[in-house]
Amino acid sequence: MRSTVFFLLCVIGLLPLTSLAQNSPEPPLTTQDDIDLITQCVLNEVIAGDKDRTIEELRHYCEQLDDAKQLSQLDKRIARESVGLKNRNVLTPHQRNYILPVSYVSHPNSRPFSGLTGISDEGEPLDHVEVKYQLSLKVPLYTGFSDKDQAIFMGFTLQSFWQFYNKDISSPFRETNYEPELFWINFLDDENVLWGDEMAFALGISHQSNGRSQPNSRSWNRVYANFLWENRGFVFSLKPWYRLPEDRKDDILEAKGDDNPDIHKYMGYFEFSGIYRLEEHEFSFMLRNNLNSSNRGAIQLDWSFPAWGKLRGYVQYFNGYGESMIDYNADIERIGIGILLTDLL
Questions:
Q1: What pLDDT is attached to residue 114?
Q2: pLDDT band at 46 (very low <50, low <70, confident <90, very high)
Q3: Are the beta carbons of 141 and 155 closer than 8 angstroms?
Q4: Please, are residues 272 and 312 in contact by the beta-carbon 8 Å criterion?
Q5: What is the DSSP letter of 34?
Q6: Which fold would CATH assign to domain 94-342?
């Protein structure tokens, strides 16, 4: 055991030296992210990679994963994920993972809770300040395509809204949404890229619900396509979807049937988003719209920045419909600040 650990440390320690001694005058890797990526790559390849690979071949393989002069932002994310996928003790992020200990809502939506036993017609007395957090992970289900740029993933995203500071009603979790999904993704070869520097295409199916019983059950199922492209460091995503129909019901308390038949009027039919990374700062936006005269939709703006260690600061602004399933038909404005655990790029 000790000899194995010693060997790993020696290999990791030799990487910067061999890079300086044998590469052309190109500058060596300098950022902590570069060093972390190569270190993890070495560990994973030694433990689970090709056992016939020499140290020299290992060095070249791991260094090429984060060659900033050749890789786009999408390439870099793929490279970081490919390192983690070989380590069974590492979970791969899907969407952002964050916690907003302080998020302020201008008009909390108490209508879903009105009329319940012990609650007035105005609903529960909800605080304007609450905690919001999101956990999002994915795992590869199949990577055996002849084209190594294709894979099938299963993803899961949990988003929760916690009335932590509301002691008057025992600080409940006001709403929690669950979204499992299954998707196939294909990163196009350079000769097939129609515009920009990188393109990818995904097809998926998702179920999103709040896991509640009637009358506060909310859910829908969608099939979607996702077109991703990068141009000069800007990464964009256009994600149209089709809602799978459900049977209508006459009684809202019935278990079977559509709990929210008008959700498309508020959530719309697509989501358009963009991300840009400027040094250690990441900026992004998200837009949704129903594309009719009512002009309902949503906008979200995000900014993440260095904080301390591996943790990053995070500011999120949301305005519109559909922030959560219980609030899909309520116009919500929120701003929150907190900690980001994983970025998108």
A1: 54
A2: low
A3: no
A4: no
A5: H
A6: Outer membrane phospholipase (ompla); Chain C (2.40.230)
CB atoms near residue 272 (< 10 Å): 15
Length of the chain: 345
Return the closest-CA partner of residue 33 out of 80, 98, 92. 80
Between helix 73-85 and helix 32-48 the angle, nearest 10°, is: 40
Q: What is the mean pLDDT of residues 154-162?
A: 97
Q: What are phi and psi of 184, to 5 degrees?
A: -105, 135
Query: What pLDDT does residue 12 have?
Result: 40
The residue behind tokens 């498309």 is 264
Q: Are 99 and 330 in contact (CB under 8 A)?
A: no
> In this predicted model, what pLDDT tens digit does every residue of 89-119 receive, in sequence order?
788 999 999 999 999 999 898 877 654 444 4
Residue 92 contacts residue 138 (beta carbons within 8 Å): yes
Report the alpha-carbon distance of residue 65 to residue 59 in Å, rounded.
10
Can you point out the beta strands (E) in the chain?
Answer: 92-93, 97-105, 129-142, 150-162, 173-187, 198-209, 219-231, 234-243, 270-278, 281-289, 297-308, 311-320, 332-342
What positions carry a catalytic annotation?
A: 207, 209
